[in-house]
Amino acid sequence: MYPKPTVFVRILVPFCAGIGVLRYAVFAKLNLPVCILLFTDLILLFTFNYLYRSIKVYHHKHKLAVLLYLLFFLLGALSVIAQPDALNQSHFSAGKAAYLKIYVADEPTERAGYLRFKARVIAAGTGRKMKKSSGLLMVSQRLDSLHFTGVNYGRVYLIPARWHRVQPPANPAEFDSRSWLANQQIYHQVLLSSGELIPLQEHRGSAVTRFVLAFRKQQVERYRKLISSDEAFAVAATLILGYRADLDAETIAAYSKTGTIHALSVSGMHVAMVYMVLEFALGWMNRKKVLKWLKMTVILALIWYYTLVTGCSASVLRSAIMITMLILTKSLHKNTGGFHILALSAFCLLFSNPNLLWDAGFQLSYLAVCGLIYLHPKICKLISFRWWLLQQTWSITSVSIAATLFTFPLSIYYFHQFPVYFLLSNLFIAVPVAVLMYGGLAILLFRCYFLAPAFEWLLNFMNHGLECIASLPYSAIQQIWITKTELAVLCAAMLFMMNGICDRKKQQLIAGLFLCIIFQGMLLRDKTVARQQMTTITYALRRNYATAFLRSDKAIVLTDLSPKDKLFKFHIQPSLDQRKISSITCIPWDFINRPEKYKKKQEFHIRDHQLWFRHFKIKFESDTLYFENSTLVFKQNKASLVNLK
User: Fold this and answer.
1) Roughly how many angstroms between the first and final C-alpha of the chain, as a whole number?
2) pTM of the model
3) CB within 8 A of 224, min separation 6: which ones?
4) Are 417 and 481 in contact (CB under 8 A)?
5) What DSSP string describes 12-63?
6) Rg over CA atoms, the chain
7) Measured distance CA(592)–CA(634) in Å, rounded
8) Can you tell me the distance from the alpha carbon of 230 to that of 224, in angstroms, rounded to the nearest whole number?
């Protein structure tokens, strides 16, 4: 049986539809129509409610339902239009200015030699005149150009108005930072040199946020003193406090390949553990009604404080709202379904920030919880054991299966890989994560510093175990690139198949299998097209050069980068994976002087000091090779990429 849609589930669908429509619409042209329609709809609803009996509205419930759905659709659209940082006349980019007055709007991070932080613009000025302004700006500055100890949340600065729009990705399949920043309402960025970040004796922002971030920084420093291993410290700070700045790429890759990346994101599991500790510690307050309400207040206050400390991510906010609703309904002796509370939390988050609908973390978090609420009980009932330990093991396994099945389509769409040993790795970390959470909180809250050596050993043990699982043969299926159409077909196929298996409905199972066949056909078509490809890709890199020559599933890359370099993995590897390249050969630009080292590779060969590839050739006439505006050139003489077709 399908779960009966609750009130918030029903209103959440049109609300999200309104957000989605306005996502791709021109705000300025729809402001007035949306407001007029919303006002008209409200008048009609109030009129029908006032004349409910006299005009027998109860005979036209379907028409009334349409008006209610239209109301929430328009509310979703209005929430997008009314965003405070949307591009409008007060935005700092709407006019010319010589300098901007900003304040640091989040916790600054240090990475790759740069200090980066999100700044909120307060005013824009020219000369001595200053005008109020608004908008968010991404600020970057080299770490070696200034001493940055005073750059904290809320600090006010003056900077030159030398901003520029965030550019789209320069290379195929590259990470789209412009869309990622746009979801945070950041459309511009600025790179500052030494002396261009002028501090003022002023602070803005929330005093609560400033206190919470300072408190988290103190706790991170405490971990830093107690834990000697850099890798263990980074995981501890992320696992307990949500501080991800010190995580390295290797650790993230190990957790990603094993399907345990959720452990590095403070999520509902972490908030639930905090709730369980508080419920156990304050259980003695259940003896009297007054003490019960006091306990509820203390637990809610501490949970929301922990939510603030860990950075208020979408998954943490979702869990905090859900636990808040559960505590309130339990105190009021009300029985509310899980889907109702889940939809209510989504509605609250999207109403405050509609851009969360396009956030991958938000989508995956809610899909995982939907899987736990709907699918986990059904999977758990499929097998039962008499031994308690085996039953608990199967329960944890079924949790992992339910969450993975619901998040599988979006996971491969966003991350292009699937962890084969996700069951093994999730079983492996189940107990260590719980022990680390409780031990880490005990170290911070109760000053149990004697636990630090065991805490660090368990962190290293967990990290090493996941690295071993990640290094197993076929640990991850990679290079999974699907289109939005293929994503939609896969989602429909999995829903039909899950419902058909769990509810024993033959028709839905057949429909799911049919959609799976269609999906496989689409993948086969993509693979056939990739096998027939014969093309070149010229990459836009700042200090390096790269040109890829693709034939079928093989690629020869003329570059000064190694496949192990971070730049290669970030700028070049995604485009090769997208085109389903299985064999990559990297050749440096000076190979022309060592032709005997490189054998002729089908249509790619060297002849007369020229590199030939089907209809293209590169002529070498100098010792210095580089790219300028995506064109291969030399500093002294000339080199050209010529199409002979």
Assistant:
1) 62
2) 0.86
3) 233
4) no
5) HHHHHHHHHHHHTS-HHHHHHHHHHHHHHHHHHHHHHHHTTTTTTGGGGHHH
6) 28
7) 15
8) 8
Name the burial class of residue 406, with classes exposed (0-12), middle (13-18) and buried (19+) by CB atoms within 10 angstroms of its CB.
buried
Residue with token string 């008499």:
386
pLDDT value of residue 639: 38
> Token digits for 65?
């339902």
On whether the CB atoms of residues 557 and 548 are closer than 8 A, the answer is yes
**Nearest-angstrom CA–CA distance, 247 and 360:** 20
pLDDT of residue 308: 81
Helical spans, DSSP H, in 286-387: 289-309, 314-331, 338-352, 360-370, 376-382
Evaluate whether 294 touches 327 at the Cβ level (below 8 Å). no
Which residue numbers in the chain have pLDDT < 70? 1-6, 26-30, 57-58, 84-87, 144-149, 266, 268, 313-314, 333-337, 589-645
pLDDT of residue 305: 85
Predicted local distance difference test score (pLDDT) of residue 609: 57
What's the token pair of residue 252? 């993230």
Residue 122, classed as helix, strand or coil, is strand
Give the pLDDT confidence score for residue 405 in this predicted structure.
Answer: 92
- Provide the pLDDT for residue 606: 62
Q: In this predicted structure, what is the pLDDT of residue 545?
A: 84
Structure tokens at 203: 């602070």
Residue 162: CB partners within 8 Å, gap ≥ 6?
190
